[in-house]
Design brief:
Layout: E1 6-12, E2 16-21, E3 30-33, E4 39-41, H1 43-47, H2 51-58, E5 61-63, E6 69-71, E7 80-81, E8 87-89, E9 94-97, E10 106-109, E11 120-121, E12 132-133, H3 137-153, H4 169-176
């Protein structure tokens, strides 16, 4: 589920729609939580679907660390990539705001954390654009991504968290403890699905 202070809106004719903040959302806010309403399919089930349905779904799905294909049920699936994203996926079943987001700003994600199986060109037009997503992005950028994510996760308890109750109590404890115990942080390397 995505944070309630968000909406869908047009980005550009080339990109289509995206997700925008309707209020200020500070660094350390949980922006998306994978919940029980998200659709998770095995690769076998996905590839058994009719081609027309697969092609329609592919744009909005990602591979989790177990190789399952995940389709969010709400408008989180419309978040666009940026190499300078203001949110990032974590190995805690949530995506976190890593840079303050002003009301009206587009909310962007780092697709390099989504186990993209085919390299493809990027057009995010940010200053640090990598030009393409690659299979080894998690391996190449984990250290810098981990630094941004851990800093944001350490601010979780200082921010209003409308999605907090969607985390089970053990996950809440684990995330809250990172402020005092940063050595217990789980790297985004744990998100990597090693396709056989």
């Amino acid at each position: 589920m995505i944070h309630p202070s968000t909406t869908i809106g047009p980005v550009s004719p080339e990109i289509g729609n995206g997700v925008f903040a309707t209020a200020f959302i500070p660094c350390g806010t949980i922006i998306v939580v994978k919940d029980c309403c998200d659709l998770t399919l095995s690769r076998e089930t996905f590839f058994a679907l009719p081609a027309t349905l697969r092609q329609s779904l592919e744009t909005f799905m990602y591979h989790d660390k177990h190789g399952q294909l995940v389709l969010g049920w709400d408008h989180a699936k419309y978040m666009n990539h940026s190499c300078c994203s203001n949110t990032m996926m974590t190995d805690y079943g949530l995506e976190i705001v890593v840079r303050d987001i002003a009301a009206g700003d587009e909310i962007t994600s780092e697709y390099g954390l989504l186990n993209v199986q085919e390299p493809y060109a990027l057009s995010c037009n940010c200053a640090d654009c990598r030009g393409a997503l690659r299979l080894d992005d998690i391996d190449r950028y984990a250290e810098q991504w981990d630094a941004r994510i851990l800093a944001a996760l350490q601010r979780v308890t200082a921010c209003e968290q409308p999605l907090w109750d969607l985390l089970d109590p053990a996950r809440q404890d684990e995330v809250a403890a990172l402020k005092q115990l940063p050595r217990h942080y789980r790297s985004v390397r744990g998100l990597k699905w090693r396709c056989a």
